[in-house]
Write a sequence for this structure.
């Protein structure tokens, strides 16, 4: 009786997996897919790909390895993930990766490339990101959590994008730029310098337009904190201070107000290598 029930259970599991993977999909034998993964028609999943539980791959998606994709992601048709980096220094090295976390929505025609040896070997996308159609995330980019990439936004190589950043449609980001947490890029912005946390920018070349007040309210920042961040913005952009002078004044403001939200801003200014948008 036990052997019969076990055989029936195995048959049910096999049928379930077969129903979740369309017969026209091509999956390399070395790819590791959780049994709950859905793969649509004509999708191609290559060697060295790992995909976590409950991730849905729509039709005509191409995923090459080495690529690791977490759980509960939804990847729409015609996306291309994990292909070779678009970098002339890339010479076919095998130990480069793309890593995608959990609960990301990756829409039509998105492209994400693996990293390069020179850049640390990995392109990484965190959790809970909304990545709209025609977005490009290049080699060696590091993307945090809860970001939004509107249609056509593109990040060149080695870009760092922290948590809760929003990129308006057709935003372009130059290599090695750093976008701080809760910053906001208006549609069509071209970013050549680092964007501090909480700051809104727009234009070609992008210029600052205050703090991301509405976004901060939606994420639970209270009025006192938002007011203090507005003071910090004025210190950086309205007082004709150099960056070291602004850091000094921001440190004093933090000591006066005990506002913890100032710490990431000070740290960002201390570690920015390209300089900030002005």
């Amino acid at each position: 009786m036990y052997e019969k029930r076990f055989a029936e259970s195995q048959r049910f599991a096999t049928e379930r997996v077969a129903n979740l993977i369309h017969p026209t999909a091509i999956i390399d034998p070395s790819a590791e897919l959780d049994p709950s993964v859905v793969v649509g028609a004509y999708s191609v999943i290559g060697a060295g790909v790992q995909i976590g539980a409950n991730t849905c791959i729509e039709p005509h998606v191409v995923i090459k390895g080495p690529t690791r994709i977490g759980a509960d992601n939804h990847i729409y048709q015609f996306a291309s993930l994990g292909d070779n980096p678009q970098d002339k220094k890339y010479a076919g090295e095998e130990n480069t990766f793309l890593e995608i976390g959990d609960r990301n929505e990756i829409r039509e025609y998105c492209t994400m490339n693996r990293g390069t040896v020179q850049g640390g070997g990995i392109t990484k996308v965190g959790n809970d990101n909304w990545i709209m159609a025609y977005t490009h995330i290049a080699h060696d980019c590091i993307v945090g959590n809860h970001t939004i990439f509107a249609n056509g936004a593109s990040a060149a190589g080695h870009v760092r994008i922290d948590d809760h950043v929003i990129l308006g449609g057709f935003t372009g980001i130059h290599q090695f730029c750093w976008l701080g947490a809760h910053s906001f890029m208006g549609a069509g912005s071209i970013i050549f310098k680092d964007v501090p946390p909480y700051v809104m920018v727009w234009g070609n070349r992008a210029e600052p337009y205050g703090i991301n007040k509405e976004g901060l309210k939606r994420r639970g920042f209270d009025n006192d904190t938002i007011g203090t961040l507005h003071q910090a913005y004025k210190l950086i952009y309205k007082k004709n201070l150099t960056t070291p002078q602004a850091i000094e004044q921001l440190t004093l403001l933090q000591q006066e107000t005990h506002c913890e939200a100032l710490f990431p801003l000070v740290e960002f200014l201390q570690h920015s290598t390209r300089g900030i948008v002005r």
Q: What stands out?
A: Residues 216-271 form a domain with the Udp N-acetylglucosamine O-acyltransferase; Domain 2 fold (CATH 1.20.1180.10).
